[in-house]
Structures are given as structure tokens and as C-alpha cells.
Amino acid sequence: MLFGLLTITFFIIRLAPGDPVSMYIQSDVDPEYADNLREVLGLSDPLPVQYVKWLKGTLTGELGMSFSKHAAVGDILLETIPNTVLLTAVALVFNFLVGIIIGIITALKRGSTLDHSVNITALFVYSMPEFWLGLMLILGVSLHLGILPASGMHSPMAKYLSLPAYVWDVVEHMILPVFVLGVASAAATGRYMRGSLLEVINQDYIRTARAKGLSEVLVIGKHALRNALIPIITLLGLSLPFLLGGAVIVETVFAWPGMGKLTIDAIFSRDYPLIIACTMVSGVMVILGNLVADLLYALIDPRIRYE
Amino acid sequence: MSSATRTPRYDVPRAPLARAFHFHLPGVAFIRRGQRVFGGMLLLYTLAFPLILVLAWEDFTRAVVSMGLSLYLLAVDTDHLVIFWRGEVIEHWIAAVVCVGMPILLWWGNRRALRRELEDRDEHERSQWALAWREFKKSRVAAGGLSVIIILYTIVLLCPFLAPFNPNAFQDGIVTKFRPPLSTVTVLHLKEARITPMPTSVHAARSGHREAIRRLIEVNRALTDENLAFQQAVHAFHIEGPDVIATVGNEAVPIPIARLDGSEPEEFASERLHLLGTDSYGRDLLSRIIYGSRVSLTLGFIAVLLSVTLGTFVGLMAGYFGRVTDNLLMRIVDILLAFPALFLILIIIAAFESVAVPRILLIVVVLGLTSWMGISRLVRGEVLSVKEREYVLAAHALGFGHARIIFRHILPNVLTPIIVNATLRIGGIILVEAALSYLNIGVQPPTASWGNIIFEGKDVLSYAWWVSTLPGLAIVLVVVCFNLVGDGLRDAFDPMLKNERI
Amino acid sequence: MSPRYLFVALLCCGLVVSCGKKSGEKDPMSETAVVALSGDADNLNPVVANSATSGDIQGNIYPTMFDVSFNTREGKLEFEPSLVTRWEFTNGGKDVVLHLRPDVRWEDGILVTPQDIKFSYELYGDPEVASPRRSYLESMIQTDGKFDVDRSIEIIDDTTMVFHFTRQYPLQLFHLNLSPIPRHIYRNADRKTMRSNPANEHPVGAGPFKLEEWTRQQQIVVSRNVNSKLPYPAKLERVIFRVISEPTTRLTELKKGAVDVMRPVYPEDVADIQESSPDIKLVTLPPRSYEYIGWMNIDAKEYHASGKKTIRPHPLFGDRRVRQALTYAINRKAILDDQLGPYGELAVTDFSPIFRWAIQHDLIPYPYDPDRAKQLLRSAGWSDSNGDGVLDKGGKNFEFTLYYNVGNKRREYVATIVQENLKQVGIKVNLQSVEPVVLYQNIEEKKYDAFVAGFSVGLAIDPSDRWGDINSPFNNVAFSHRRVSELLKLGLHVPTERDAGPFWKEIQSILHQEQPCTFLYWIKDIVGQNRRLKRVNINVLGVTDHMWEWTIGDPKSSVTY
């Protein structure tokens, strides 16, 4: 599956017009030196040969050199992946935590003013362009109120701070990007959760539980919630590609040093090895996310067992 | 629910005037039978067209003349296609036609519907669609969303008549740029155009239809002209002897009163209102948002159409033929789904950007081609359940061809989830277009799209908030409406689907 | 999901927060300056680095041969001793003898020797390395068209070396100012893969700063090199270069004081900054770069189809009258007023106003005069004969595509105005924005008929890279003029810079007459600087010039050091 993904990327990129070599040399350099450079970068071989070479390299963990960053792709990725993982993971947690809480509240208070206003807010949040929301927040929260940092992952001198101060520093920088990245999916999760919980509450066994005289907290918390959560788990796997795509935008807006920003730069500088590697990593992350979703499924729903 | 579907008989008014209103004014009949909101909106919508016609009468007559002359020329002499075969001219024709045609269409549809009702049809003849429509109308918000969408798409067709200014025209940027909403710009009216219009030798060169050609060129120029040539925007002005001293930026420019159109300030000066302010070039933001809706909304619509067609096709094939086809197609779908969609879009657009295809087309195609996977999964699922039904099995038994079974028997029965899904998707596509503009690979300026207006304004947010904020709100509004309509449709189709299963 | 766990988690968060607030260590920022960058550096090895960012940073890490400054009043470069203590010209100016400081050491303690310099020049001149600065060595001795390091550079003893040139010319010292890199580190490096040599990540320099950390896409941190003798260790403990690509964010950080130096500040933000942030000083730099609209002078299609042999005038822009008409038809003043205001000036030719002595002051910039433009176009045979509102000649419309780079607001503005202005005189312009990489490549390969671009001139006059002949590296419009070529040869072979004045002035007159491209305006870059940073000398050489002298003080204090 991953393999198919990579093949598609490779061919799209390589077949596109635009010569990456011209970036590195001035036009007064003789054509033969340009050819030489092209050879060093492995661009002069016929396409199928390039493909096989590249495939061999990828399978042995050799991702090649980045054209534009003048460094090994692996190293660059190692620097940026953790940042993106941190951002998306926290956004994912935010998404589900907030989404589930909203879902429970609106489901329990359905038909109330609270339910309606939350639903409407969720709808609007869900319909907002991410970059626009980000810009508005930078302008409002960071510039006018001056309470949160507008960009970056930590303050420039963070590494001289003590550990707790460092953590706090990163947390501070993370609030806005995580909010922007997670809030739309949280709104969606909330609506989904509401529906799911409502469906469960109307089922017979809940009625039975209530009839047994169990307290409302226990009924909802133990019986209803567990069953309502099952369909939400599917969302987990589905929302990951969505979040990673959103990360591209959010990282650009907030100058978050992650893979999304890197991918954009790579695409615009025609940095083939880097683009392909970024794509591969995002694909792997999505697949891993689905795997985690499957495992969680089994954990929550005792009917499913994997050998 | 079922009792509500019974159609009560309505009386038709006897008085001739009331009767005429009832049949010939869409909406009146609904108001009379108690559907006030719907009827009122329909009535207003219908009446809006003549109103626009009156307000844009000058442009309308020009468009009609232009259309007439062009048709005449087309009939007698095809050499002069270049004179009118231009986007700016044709968009005026469309607006003129819509302005007249739409109310007629509404009138005709309304009369037909009312006549049919009189013929007393039974409820079980009502189609699935009519039932859904009835169900849909019950949800106020969804209906509201739909009305907004209809209005917006009407605006798309009528934008040359609705936009107060040409969206791409600007001059005296130093005076007109970054005017906040509701502000005015002082303009001086000149006797002669600032730049003499370009002479053309075409009517001198050819005989025969010389006069018609001359008129057509004139009319088309009037249609597409920015009307700015006779205006000079100024910060302020005062009269000093025979001159008007105009303040433009930091400079004082003397203009002889003799060159102005009139001798008193009331005659030669006026205020130009910019309802939503102006952008960095001094272009009217309202006009740009109106024209931008054309790009954003049609782009969303066409891209979704493309993705739905492709997705449905793949889903039908996979679901109907099963086995190897199914495996192969669904594997491809899996691969593409594992890809964060934005990555794929970015890569394709960046890679094929320099190919000589208009960017807008490229974006539509790419957006269409990267968002069909969800639909094909959905359709496949539906097809799997439908293809075991008796009528499909019967069709097989009768020896019908695959094509006929797929398109006549299966497709109509999987259409509802497709429609719901497509509606929900348009909003998403509009958001993606905006995101692409943010990453600078959106629609090529100066053509306005909501995304690229936001992009243009993002660096000036701190002192010209309106440039980015207002089109952003427009996007939010549209996407909210599409989501509402999608939800409404789902709710409308759902109970019916359940009924069917029982 | 039990509430107990939630409580514990909350407690932990609270603990972390309170600790973070309490830690009252000495503020590490008191000895640190922060510079905002719009893009990351590509490489910190001066031999292969190409980005402006790299130049700003590596100039403070690697040793410089001379301490260069630009005399704004005179309009010329001045060279003071740095690694080179003194120098003399011999052999009629063809040979330059350099005397080096004996006591300069690389960070790892090894002495900087003439061998290092020779080795570095060998790398700069090696075609396999393909250094962007290879052309600097063109006037040294060449063998078989390649730079001959052994015949060009002669080492006399441990502190003396001689560079042999083929001629005397004004730029000799400028071309001798390439930063050396340590030979003992790069001696065995593979030349072809110089760009990705792992040693580039950990530069060993001898300048006032040393690289402390380089996190890609985030920041580059340089700190004081305590052993530096060139000229002395930096006064600041540390300078951080942060990569912030989003302009709004960058400006926000400057206003909040999280960034001390930022370039460029856009003219439209100036009023706002002056009003809301008294702590920020805005420095306007002299104009070094201009923007222009390139009109392809030759028929590029024919040219490429014939293997760069057939040179015929371009069907649209080949005629001088047409090019003049285009300049008349474009309201350059309006663009300037709207976009730059006081931070720009109308460009007459591409000779920067900073070289006052070389400027031909008699030339009057073309005014905005669409009627004159129409006249000229008519005299060149263009008229609207089919009534579509577009000029035509011989059945072909005057229509072309104007290319500009994506994301550059000002050039987009230029393109939009050009489209509007030319529409008035009956020329149809289609706009197309292109990613910078693709744009520059196609411009250099002469594939675009019309484009908006910019150019930053060097600090010594050398127009030969633009107007030498059709194949000159930056002659992107393929302009050629016999007299200009002659004048260039004359101007570049005078003993001192000033002697070339008359030749440069004549070239300007010709360029003004010919309008090979429409010169728009010179740009005076604005740099925003927090007043807490003292002794900052931001000048035409760059933001980080003499960065080792920077200190940090109270923003309110008006003490000048």
C-alpha cells in the first residue's frame, strides 16, 4: 500500500517540468558542469533506472540527499518529524477530549439552549478556513492581547531554561496551533459523539440499567459511554490524514518547524528526495494511526479479538 | 408523518385580480395557504429580478443591443467574431438573459405546479423526491441554508449587474487604496477622458456592415469600460482662482476648472461609496467579493461534479462486478486515502503548474481527481446491498446488459446518499481552494476568488482588517449553508429510506 | 477516564506550570540578539553557499580577508586590514602582494596559513565544485579555459602571498575578498559533493562568532568566539537567527520585542510601527536593488530552435520604438508612490544612485504619457484593424504573457498595473505567476518574452554581466549593442574606478534611449531594529555587517557609544 503511494508520488514529481539543477549554478557555468551536477544528483539516468535506484535506496533506509538543504534527507526528517508528531498528537488528543466532552454535554442536554448554541458554534468553526482562523487568532490573541507567542515552537533561548520552564515554554507556544488544528475536528467529533450517544441511550439495555435503579452517572459513564465510543474510534483513523493535511497550513501560519512546512518548501524548490520522503512519512503515520485505531477498537469492544 | 403528506384542497380565488396574482405571481399561492415564509421568499426572489433590471437598466439595454448586433453580424458576416467573442461581453449577455428568463421560468413553473394541483393527484403518485422535499422544507435552518445558496448562485450569474464597480478596475491607487468599509472617495468629474480611447480602423476598412460594426464596438466598449476615465480621485480639493487644487497623496495638483465637468463643486465633484471598502489597489471590495463568488462557487460545484462522477463510476464498477475489479479498485482507493489529500493536491499542482493550462482549470481537475475516493467507497457499499434486491435479480434474469442494469436499475437507487455526500463536499472544496490560495497556488490574480482576496489581505491585517476578514466571512457563510443543506437532505432522505426497508 | 487519573494529570500540569513561572534565573536574553529571517540558510560553507541568508551568517563565522565598508558619500568600496594586514600592487597592477596576520587561528587552534587561502581559492575555481562565485577568478590566470591555481597564486612565506591577474582593473581587491575555509578539514573532501559535505554543518571558522546550533527551519545560533582575532571576539554572547516565513507573524514578533532585527519591513507597515512601537528604530538603506520589466529583444523561439544561432528581432519587442512606447505607457510613478513612497526612487537605468560619481544626471525619466505611447506604436506599424480593442500588425495581435514570481506582492502589483495600463493603449497582457525556482530558470534561459524581475547590483560597478553580449549571465532580455560592448571593455580596463566615469555615463545614455527593459524603481530597504540593541551598523553591506560590535542596553537610554 505504502509502495503504491510512493510510486505515484515519484512519477508525478519526476514527470513534471522544471529543472532542479539550475538552482545551484549560475547560468555562466558551462553546460558540462551542469551535466556533471545532474549526474551527481542522479537526474541524468532514464526514468525507470532512477525509479529502481531510488526504490533500492528507500528499502535500505537510504533516503538520499536533499537538493535544497544540502543535507541527508534522513537527518532533516529526524529533526522535523518529532515536532509534527507532537503537534498532531496533541491536536488529536484535544480533538477527542473536547469533542467527546461536547458530545456528552449536548447529548445529555439535548434540545436545550446550550445544545443549540454549541451546535451552531461547532458548525461555524467547522466551516472556517484554518489559515484564516489562525491569522485572526494571531492578530487578536497574540498581537492585541499580547498573551501568547505568535510563532515558533519555543522561545529562542529555550534550551537554557530549566526543564519545567522549558516544558511550559513549549506548551505556551503550542496552544494556538493546537487549537487551530484541532478545533474543526473537535467540532465534527462532538457532533458525531452526540449522535452516537443519543442512539445508545435509547437502547433497551440502558433502559434496563435505569430501571434497575442505577444512578444516572453510572448509567451514562459506564454503560452508555463505552458503547457510544466505539464508532468514535473509527474517526480516529479517519481524522489523521485530515490533521496532517491541516498541519501543512497551520505550520506555515505559526512557523512551526515541522514536516508540513518542510514539505511546502520542498515542493517549491523541486527537492524530489525530500518530497518523496515527506510523503512516505505521512503515509506511514496514517497507516500507523489506523493500526492504533484497530487496537483501540479491540480494547474497547470486547466482541472484537485479534489473534 | 404520513398524515401530513395528504394534500388538502385549496380554493382558487374568484376575484379576477386575486386570481391573476394567485396564478401569475410565484409565491402568492403559498402565502395564501399559510406557508408564509416560503411563499414570501419566493415572491421576493421573483420580484428581485425586475428590480435589478430597473437598477441596471443602462447596462441591460446595452447588453441587449450588443447581443442583437452580434447575432446580426454572426448571420451576415462571420469575420467579426473577435469583436464580441470576449468573456467580459458574454457575461453581460448571460446576466441579461438570466434577468429576463429567470422570472419567466419561475412564473411558468409556478403556474404549471398550481394547475397540476388542481387536477387532483393522489399522494401515492408523489415521487420519492417530492417526499424528501416536503421533509426537507420542515427544517427551517436547512431551508434557510438552501435559500442562501440559491441566492448566491443567482448572484454568480448576475454579477455584472450587481457589482457596483468593475472588480479589476482601479486608478489613483494612492487615494483610493485601503478605504475602510462604508467610506467614500471624493472624485472630480472631467470633461474629457484622461486617456483618449484607442482608435480603431475596422469600420473604415470594410464596407457593408460598417455601421453595425461601429455600433457594436461602441456598445461593447461601454459595457466593459470601467467608467473611470472621466474621474479623478482626490483626497481633498479647494478652489483657487481658475484652478481646482486637488490633494493627491502629498502633492497638490492644479486642475483648471475649464477641464472639469461643470463649474461648481456640486457639479464636478461627487462621493463614490465603497460599501465594503477597498483593497491595496483601490479596487472595490464588494465588487471583488461578488465576482469572487463566481470563481469560488463554480469551482466548488464543478470539482464536486467531477469527483462525484468519477467516484460513482468507480464505486459502481467495484460494487457491481466484484471480485478482481473490486479488489483492484478498492486497493487504489485505500492507497489514495492514506495520503493526506492536501499533500497530493500540492504535489500535483506544483508539478504541473508550468504546463500551459489555465490555473483555474488545473485546480478544478486536481480537486476533482483527489476527492472521489470517499464517494466510491460509499457507492460501492450501497451497490453491494442493492444488487441483491429482487428487481435487480429480475433484470438479470431477463437478460439485460450490464450497462442497462447499472444505469437503469442500480444507479437511481444509490443516488440519494451520493447527493447528500456531494452537498457536504462542496463546502470542503471551497475551503481547500482558499487554502491553496493561501499557499499561493490558487487562482491566478487579478481574477478574484475568495481565497486570493484573503491572501492579498493577510499581510495588511493589522491596519486593513476588512480585506481578509470579509471574504473569510463569506466563505464561512457559504460553507455553513452547504453543511446545513447537506444535513437537512440527509435527515430528509433518511426516514424514507427506513420506511422503504420495513 | 477515571476522575482520579484526571486529577493527577491536572496536578502534574499545575506543578510544571508553577515551576516554570518560579525559575528566576538570569534572563538569558540579556546577552542575546535575535534576527528574523524569512528563509533558512542553504549552506554555511562560503564556497558553495548561495542564499543571502548564508552570506549574512557565514561572514561572521569565517575569516574575512579585508574589512570592507562602503563609503556612501564617495560611492565606493573601501578596504581595511583584516586577515590581510597590508597589500601592494606590483607588475603594473597585475600582481597583488598580500601580507597576512601570523596569529590568526581556526576555532580548533590550528593557524590560518596561506595554504588555507590557496586551497580555498582552488575550490572556488574548481568547476567540479561549481561555486556560485567562480566568476570572481576569471581575471586570474587561466589554462585551457580553467582557473589555474598554481600559476595564479604564489606563496612566498608563511605570511606573504602573491596573486597574479591577467590585467589591472578596479575590482581586484573585491575579488580577493573570498572567505577562506580550513584546509585541514576539507583537504580530502570529495569535490563533486562539496555541497553536502557533513563538515558544512559544523563550520570551523576564525571570525568573531562561531556556530553553536543550527536547527533547520527554526534557528541558527551563533555565539561569541572567544579566541577570535578578527578583529576581536564578539561583544554579544550570542545572536540567534530565527526563520519566520509568514510576514504577519514576523512583524508581530518584532513589535513584541521577541525579534530585534528584521528585514525587510514593508513601507506600508512603517506608519503603524512608528506609532505603536517607539522601541523600534527603522533604518533605511541606500538603494542597491531595482526592479524592471524585461522585454525579450530577440526572437527567442527562433533563437532556441536554431540552437542559439539565429538572432532576429523579437516580433513585438524587437523595435526600439515599441520598447519606448511601453515605458511611456506604464505609470511607473503611480507604482512607486503606491508601493514604496519615500522608500524608493524612479530608475532611469540600472546604474545605482549610490555611485554618484558615475551617474549621468542629464537623463530625464520617461514620463507617463499614453498618447505618446500610442503615437510611437502607430509609427511602428501597430493599429487596431479588427475592432477587438487590441492592436495588431500583419494579422497578429499585440498580446503577450507577463510572468512574475508567486508570493511577491510588489511584483504582483506591478504586473497588475502593467496589465491595466497597457490595456489603455491596446495591448493585451495575460498575467502568470510562477514559483521562483521555475521563474528564474526560465528567465535565465531566455524563455520568457516579458517578465517582472529584480536585480541587486554589486558594490563595485560592473555592468558586463548584464550588457556584455547576448550570452552574458544576466542579460536576460538578450540586448546587444555594439557601442555598449566597446564602452564596457574601456570602462573595465581603467586603472582606478573613477576613470571609468565617462564610459559609464555614455552607456546610461544608450540604455535610456534603447530601453532594453523598462526600469521601474530603486528600492531602499527598511530594516526594523529594536533600540535595546546598540552600536548596530546596518548599512548597504547588509544587516549583519560588523555584528561583532553589537551590544545590548536599555532601550530607553539614549547613550551612544
Question: How would you summarize the topology of this molecule?
Answer:
The complex is a heterotrimer of chains A (307), B (502) and C (561).
Chain A (H helix, E strand, L loop, with lengths): L1 H14 L15 H10 L6 H13 L5 E2 L4 E2 H36 L4 H14 L3 H15 L18 H39 L2 H8 L4 H39 L4 H10 L3 H29 L7
Antiparallel strand pairs in A: 1-2
Helix pairs in contact in A: 1-11, 4-5, 4-7, 4-9, 4-11, 5-7, 6-7, 6-9, 7-9, 9-10, 9-11, 10-11
Chain B lengths: L15 H9 L3 H5 L3 H20 L1 H20 L4 H4 L2 H32 L9 H11 L1 H23 L10 H4 L6 E7 L12 H4 L4 H15 L6 E4 L1 E5 L2 E6 L2 E6 L8 H4 E6 L10 H37 L1 H15 L3 H12 L6 H11 L3 H14 L3 H8 L4 H37 L11 H8 L7 H37 L1
Antiparallel strand pairs in B: 1-2, 1-6, 3-4, 4-5
Chain C lengths: L2 H20 L9 E6 L14 H7 L7 E6 L4 E6 L2 E7 L4 E6 L13 H12 L16 E2 L2 E2 L1 H4 E5 L2 E5 L7 H4 L7 H4 L22 E7 L3 E6 L13 E6 L3 H10 L4 E2 L4 H10 L3 E5 L4 E7 L4 H6 L14 H10 L2 H8 L4 E3 L23 H10 L12 E2 L2 E2 L1 E7 L3 H16 L3 E7 L1 H9 L5 E7 L7 H4 L14 H11 L8 H14 L2 E7 L2 E5 L2 E2 L16 E2 L9
Parallel strand pairs in C: 1-12, 1-13, 19-20, 19-21
Antiparallel strand pairs in C: 2-3, 4-5, 5-9, 6-7, 8-9, 10-11, 11-12, 13-23, 14-23, 15-21, 15-22, 16-22, 17-18, 24-25
Helix pairs in contact in C: 10-12, 16-17
The average pLDDT value of chain A, as a whole number, equals: 77
Structural class of chain A: mainly alpha
- Count of helical stretches of chain B: 21
Please tally the β strands of chain A and state the result: 2
Give the strand order, joined by hyphens, for the main sheet of chain B: 2-1-6
Give the proportion of residues in helices of chain B. 55-70%
Written as H for each helix and E for each strand, in order along the chain, the element string of chain B is HHHHHHHHHEHHEEEEHEHHHHHHHHH
User: What is the N-to-C succession of helices and strands of chain A?
Assistant: HHHEEHHHHHHHH
Query: What is the CA–CA distance across the termini of chain B?
Result: 15 Å
Categorize the overall geometry of chain B: globular
Residue share in helix of chain A: over 70%
| Protein chains sharing the most extensive interface | A-C, 65 and 62 residues
Describe the structure.
The complex is a heterotrimer of chains A (307), B (502) and C (561). Chain A is built from eleven helices and two strands. Chain A has 307 residues and is mostly helical. In chain A, helix 10 packs antiparallel against helix 11. The longest helix of chain A is centred in the middle third of the chain and has 39 residues. Chain B has 502 residues and is mostly helical. Chain B contains 21 helices and six strands. In chain B, strands 2-1-6 form a three-stranded antiparallel beta sheet. Chain B has a three-stranded antiparallel beta sheet with strand order 3-4-5, with no helix packed on it. In chain B, helix 4 packs antiparallel against helix 11, helix 13 packs across helix 17 and helix 19 runs antiparallel to helix 21. The N terminus and C terminus of chain B are likely disordered. In chain C, the strands form seven sheets. In chain C, strands 10-11-12-1-13-23-14 form a seven-stranded mixed beta sheet, with helices on one face. In chain C, strands 16-22-15-21-19-20 form a six-stranded mixed beta sheet. In chain C, helix 13 links the parallel strand 19 and strand 20. Chain C is globular. The relative contact order of chain C is 0.14. The N terminus of chain C is likely disordered. Chains A and C meet through helix 2, strand 2, helix 4, helix 6 and helix 7 of A and helix 1, strand 12, helix 7 and helix 14 of C.
